[in-house]
Amino acid sequence: MKIDSGLLTDFIISIPFIVYFLHQIRSKSKYYIFKCFVISFLCFYTILLVKYAVFPIYISGSIKEMMREELSFSESLAENINLIPFVRGWYPKDFILNIIMTLPLGVLLPCLIKGMTRKSMTIVGLGVGIAIELVQFLIFLFQGFTFRDININDSLANAIGVIIGFAIYTFAVRIFIEETKSTQIKTLRMVRNFLIDQGQFTDG
Fold first, then answer.
1. Cα torsion at 136, 140, 146, 152 (round to 10°)?
2. Tens-level pLDDT at each residue, the chain (204 residues)
């Protein structure tokens, strides 16, 4: 028996986003439409991230018994866990994929949280990367085996992905604000004001 991603797990993951979404609609804050739009994307992204990084979880069954017979707990621990960056468990392709995996977070979070800086986004990136590996480690303890590498290199790549995403966001928004300085299109002015109000940029 295994727990895999599906409608139920997607719904459970979506609950805090739905609550935030409904709160924004009810409060009708100044930029609630934009924040609802962003939170929808963030919800969808989080579901995909958890699906990729966490599931499936094996509770019982032939695969679980076979893996436990093939490798002892200590052997599996030694084979699948790496805490030394760029020395052991270094796979360039996986490193790049882990960077790409968290790029959207660097773009979406500054749209929801005011005043995000490079330092705060670095902390978020490291926190997300470590949290993913910690969840994978807890699942490993529960199962007694894992098909994943619990790797510090993945955490570093996730942090880099968030930072690069934030850099792309910053660059794109600066250009957008400059190019729409004199626009008379109402929607563009609203988006411009929303981005300025988030705190990373000034009007000028």
1. 40
2. 677 778 888 899 999 999 988 888 888 777 888 888 899 999 999 999 988 888 877 776 666 566 666 666 666 667 778 888 887 767 888 899 999 999 999 999 998 888 888 888 989 999 998 999 898 888 888 777 677 778 889 999 999 999 999 999 999 999 998 888 888 888 888 888 888 887 655 444
For residue 139, what are the contacts with CB-CB under 8 A and spacing of at least 6?
Answer: 54, 57, 146
Of the candidates 197, 138, 201, 142, which has an alpha carbon nearest to the alpha carbon of residue 175? 201
Q: Where are the domains of the chain?
A: 2-197
Q: Is the peptide bond before 56 cis (omega within 30 degrees of 0)?
A: yes
Q: What is the 3-state secondary structure (H, E, C) of the chain?
A: CEECCCHHHHHHHHHHHHHHHHHHHHHCCCCHHHHHHHHHHHHHHHHHHHHHHCCCEECCCHHHHHHHHHCCHHHHHHHHEECCCCCCCCCHHHHHHHHHHHHHHHHHHHHHCCCCCHHHHHHHHHHHHHHHHHHHHHHHHHHCCCCCCEEHHHHHHHHHHHHHHHHHHHHHHHHHHHHCCCCCCHHHHHHHHHHHHCCCCCCC
Question: What backbone phi and psi angles, to 5 degrees, belong to 144?
Answer: 90, 0
